Structure formats: structure tokens, C-alpha cells
Amino acid sequence: MLSIPAEAPGWGVAMNDFGPGDSPDRDEMLRARLAEARQEHADLDVVVQALAAMPTPNLGVLGRFKRKKLALKDEIAALEDQLTPDIIA
User: Fold this and answer.
1) Is a pLDDT exceeding 50 seen at residue 46?
2) 46, 50, 63 from 1: Cα distances, Å
3) Is the Cα torsion angle 56, 60, 62, 63 positive or negative in sign?
4) Rounded CA gap, 31 and 29, in Å?
5) pTM of the complete model
6) 3-state helix vs strand vs coil in the chain, percent to 5
């Protein structure tokens, strides 16, 4: 599982400062970051499609945007995992 850095940019507080009893504030913060990451991912998708459609795309820039998009996808999956309660079968 991908771990979120203790000092994620824009969060203002370390994730390690939260305990199991602090879930409402923590969940709200995670949902806010999840929405932000999804929006960034969608924005990058538009940029990647526009660059790829160019007659001579700059492959270095295109690759950079694709890697950023993939990193956001991983972050989104990690955030969703943190927000989804564990169900023991």
C-alpha cells in the first residue's frame, strides 16, 4: 500500500498527528485532498490529450505529465483505501 508522506503539501498538519479517535476531522481532510487530487488528475488528462494530438508533441513534456498523472492516480487509490473501512470476512 502506498503511504502518504507525513507532511503532504497543502495539508498543513502531519498525518502522524492523528490517532484512531480523530477520524471525523481526518476523514474530512482526506476527502478534501481526494477531491483535489481527482481534479488535478482530470486537468492533466486534458493536457495530455491535447499534447498527444499535436502534430509533433514534445515527448519529454508529455512523459512528465503522464508520470505526474500516474502518481496522482496512485495517491487517489491510497486516499480511497484510507477512507474505506476494513471489512474482515
Assistant:
1) yes
2) 28, 32, 24
3) positive
4) 5
5) 0.69
6) 70, 0, 30
